[in-house]
Design brief:
This protein is α+β, with helices and mostly antiparallel strands and about 160 residues long. About 35% of the residues lie in helices and about 20% in strands. The protein has a single domain, classed as Nonspecific Lipid-transfer Protein, Chain A (2-Layer Sandwich), CATH 3.30.1050. Strands 3-2-1-4-5 form a five-stranded mixed sheet. This is SCP-2 sterol transfer family protein.
């Protein structure tokens, strides 16, 4: 495979890229390049793919007994509309809603797209993003600290 920064990300079929390969691509890209990718027309396609795979990376045994709604807000750098997704963990499943609902989340996470991609690909730590103010939390901070245990996050 070509170096991540040399890939034609605008035409890359993210649906054909496995989680470990995706983690490697994100790891090899400078923040500037991720911001360009996520500022273009492919932004929603990439986010849909990431959230669409969450249920396949979910570890039901690790989340046994948990019932929580998490709202993810991925901010737009260009002043455009933010993207909002919700994940519900409960009953041994993880379901995703690709929009904000009227339900009240136990946890809301807000971050820019480069930080989001680094976090979900295992290339960034939630606590580090939080303490550097690149991740904003509202709600159950203990739930935020345990989220990584509920998913099989790739190792870049």
């Amino acid at each position: 495979m070509a170096a991540a920064d040399d890939l034609d990300l605008e035409t890359l079929d993210f649906g054909s890229v496995g989680p470990a390969e995706f983690a490697g691509i994100v790891k090899g890209l400078p923040t500037r390049r991720i911001a360009e990718l996520m500022g273009g027309p492919q932004r929603r396609r990439v986010l849909d793919e990431v959230f669409g795979r969450m249920h396949t990376l979910f570890k039901p045994d690790a989340a046994a007994g948990k019932d929580a709604l998490i709202r993810w807000r991925i901010t737009a750098a260009d002043g455009g509309a933010d993207d909002v997704y919700e994940t519900h963990i409960g009953g041994g499943t993880c379901t995703v809603t690709p929009e904000r609902t009227d339900r009240e989340p136990q946890l809301s996470l807000t971050m820019a797209a480069p930080e989001f991609l680094r976090l979900v690909s295992g290339n960034a730590s939630g606590p580090t993003l939080f303490f550097t103010r690149k991740l904003k939390l509202k709600g159950d901070i203990r739930l935020a600290g345990s989220l990584t245990y509920y998913f099989d996050i790739p190792k870049p």
